[in-house]
Every structure is written in C-alpha cells, then in structure tokens.
What we know:
Number of helices: 6
Helix content: 55-70%
Number of strands: 7
Radius of gyration: 45 Å
Structural class: alpha/beta
CATH class of the domain at 95-257: Alpha Beta
Largest sheet: 5 strands, parallel
Order of helices and strands: HEEEHEHEHEHEH
Amino acid sequence: MRQEEAYWGLRDNVRFQGRLPGRMGSAAALPSSASAMSSSSISSPKRRFSLLKRRARPANRRESTARLLLRRSLGGLLLLALGWFGWVYFQIKAVADHDEARPADAIAVFGAAEYGGRPSPVLHARLDHAVELYREQMAPLVITLGGGSDLDKGKTEGGVGRDYLLANGVPYEQIVAETRSVDTEQLVRRLAEIARARHLNSIVVVSDGTHLFRVRKLCQDAGLTVYTSPRGPLGHIDDYDLALRYFHEMLSYTLLRLHVNFGWLHGRADA
Length: 271
C-alpha cells in the first residue's frame, strides 16, 4: 500500500513539475507577444505612410512626365525660333550687301519721311541713288512711291520725290509719282498696278539695304521681276541702331509670313 502511495505521489510530483515549466513558459511568452503587438502598433503608421507613398508615386510620375514633355516642347520651339530668325537675318544681310542693279524698264524708289515738302535724309539718299541709276541709263523711267498723312498738309513722299528728281535733271515725262500708299505692302501693290498699266517687265527697286529683302519678297508675291539696289551709306550708323533695323525687318517679315498685320510695324523702314 505504501509502495502504491509512494508511486502515485512520485507520479503526481513529476506531473506537477512537468506542468510548471509549461506554465512558466507560457507566462514568459506573454511579454514577447505583447512586445509584438506593441511593435505592430508602432509600425502601423509607417506602413500607412509607405502605402500612401506608393500610391502617390504614379501621380508624381505622371506630373514629372508632363513637365518633361513641356520642357522639351518649349526647348524645341526655342530652337525652331532661333533657327528661323537666324535664317531671316542672313537673308536680309545677303540682300543688303549685294547690288543687283542692271538695265530694266523702270527704277522704283520706296518712300521715306518728308518734312514740309523737303525729303528726309533717308529719302534724300534713296533719291540720289535713283538719280545715279538713271544717269547710268539703267532705266528710262523713275517711279516715286509714298503717300502722306493729314499732318503733311497735302505733301506726299511720292510728290516730294518727283520734285527732287525734277530738280536733278530727270525729265517730267520720265517720272511717275504714286501718292496714296502708306506702308510697304501698299507701296508694292501700287507698284504692281503701275507695272501692269505700263507693261513694265522688270524694275530696279531702291530702298535701305535692310528693307530690300522684304520688298523683294513682296514684289515676287505680286508677280513682279525686281532687282534690288540699296542706297548708299548715310553718315555713321552705330551697332545699336543697325541691330534695331535688323530686328524690325526680321519681326516684320515673320509677321508677314504669319499673315499678322500690324500697320505700325509693317511701315516703311527708316522713315
């Protein structure tokens, strides 16, 4: 009997000791699980931020792509504009530096300002060049172009030019004065009408060098055959003034090709 009690007592003791580590183990495991919960609760805002960041990436990528395309488009337009204006500049300069004067049916002088019936220095230089060409027998007829404003008291650039030519030995019957046009485009249209009425096949056009490229293009568009002949230099022109003249003509020709009409900009050069 005692042996059985001893046996069962020893067995219960062993069971109790076997359970104790398990219970202690489970109790020890509690802090680890708590720490896991606390770490997960701490890391949850980070996870949310990470998710939001991931969601924001496609939008940021779309925005950056749009900006890149915009920058490339603006860069391409800038290069295109620089190329265009560079081409126009060299065309203007090539015409300004070359005198094409040769025998023709007429000489046309593009108008510039007149002051109280007297030609301005610019118009004076253009008329002097036309007189030289006439004396060289480049053409038997001289056409003076240009109207006037209400402030000119009936005086016109074409009329002042005619009077100047008469004073310098050009016969009256060899002069045609056009007195209604007020800008370069109108000057060319009136010149085309005179050429058709008088059956003029070729014309030497006289103006400032920087002006002649646009004049030639307008005349060609009107069906005229023209040869450009720039007037001689007039005093000293500084680099700033020359740059302004080139800029004026480059912009005027560009707007002309874009069919944008600004009368104040398309006016006669150096009037």
